[in-house]
């Protein structure tokens, strides 16, 4: 067996199951799970219609590179959404379909990381707290994870200047998540420019997980994307060592479709396609054709944002005045990263035992680094359930704290 398998940490939801073990929630209260970021809104009907109509295409082998029409739809959406000049993003070379961002975020480390670096292993940088796939991808690629903190005193934004020079010199890949999971903090263009300049000096690939980018609260102020910042750089290839990840799971409420995209550096994607061809992750043709419909439609995405806006308004009205929990509207995304008093694991267990609500303790999403665990004292609440359930959960939290 690959010895690096033994370096993998238990997944957050394994730890959560252990934490809840033995607790007996009240049987007369419906369970409301706020722990998993699985969208619960209805999938768009136009996508489901396309999926039904194209099911006979399941009889054909799909190409790993995807249908040209799919790559054109993806490149078109990226160009419109991130204000890219016509023709800057080539559907033939700058875009690939993937089976959801989780699969691709893991796979990119296996393709990018060069293990043959001498006495010290290569480094993969990642935010802390973080999506655990980043860490697992680094470990199984034979790399050493380096956790850069995203702390409340910095607005939960990364401080790339605080990463030691010795780490940058060994770094090969850097994961960044904006809007952030779990905080919802959005990295601004200036911070991205500083990151890209530093990454270019050290020849580091920047992998931007932007799967929450389409859930935001001001229709006139969508989150900044890495591609639009990279497009303003000097050089022959503005996307050099830049790759971004987007998904239909959150944007279009299609988590089970397992459809997303990667875009950016053409040379990197050419090698990544070779890796993926051997890995065998081609999207079934009905999935590809349904994805074309989804990427080409914005009406359902705007409606989706309105649903989340309504839920955040209602939940924050209930919880913001409550002592014992510190909640604020995030920049984007569907998580509340809530500060609680004492050990957040005790809060989560009590909430489950007394109110039959499940939330995720922050330290299950983070690692201690330099003596600090940035997830301690926080719980993550995913407002993915229907409005009535989210409101009911907020009322029960308020009752427990009162």
Distance between the termini: 52 Å
Query: CATH architecture of the largest domain, please?
Result: 3-Layer(aba) Sandwich
Q: Which stretches are poorly predicted, pLDDT < 50 over at least 5 residues?
A: none
Describe the sheet with the most strands. 7 strands, mixed
Question: Quick one: overall form?
Answer: globular
Using only C-alpha atoms, the radius of gyration works out to 21 Å
- Give the fraction of residues assigned to helices: 25-40%
Largest sheet: spatial strand order: 2-8-7-6-5-3-4
> What structural category do the secondary elements indicate?
alpha/beta
Our count of domains comes out at 2
Supply the number of helical segments. 14
Give helix and strand order, one letter per element, not per position.
HEHHEHEHEHEHEHEHEHHHEEHEEEH
CATH topology of the largest domain: Aspartate Aminotransferase, domain 2
Q: Beta-strand percentage?
A: 5-15%
What is the average per-residue confidence, as pLDDT, rounded to a whole number? 96
Counting DSSP E segments of at least 2 residues, the number of strands comes to: 13
CATH class of the largest domain: Alpha Beta
According to CATH, the homologous superfamily of the largest domain is Type I PLP-dependent aspartate aminotransferase-like (Major domain)
Keywords: Aminotransferase, Transferase
Protein name: Succinyldiaminopimelate transaminase
Pfam families: Aminotran_1_2
EC number: 2.6.1.17
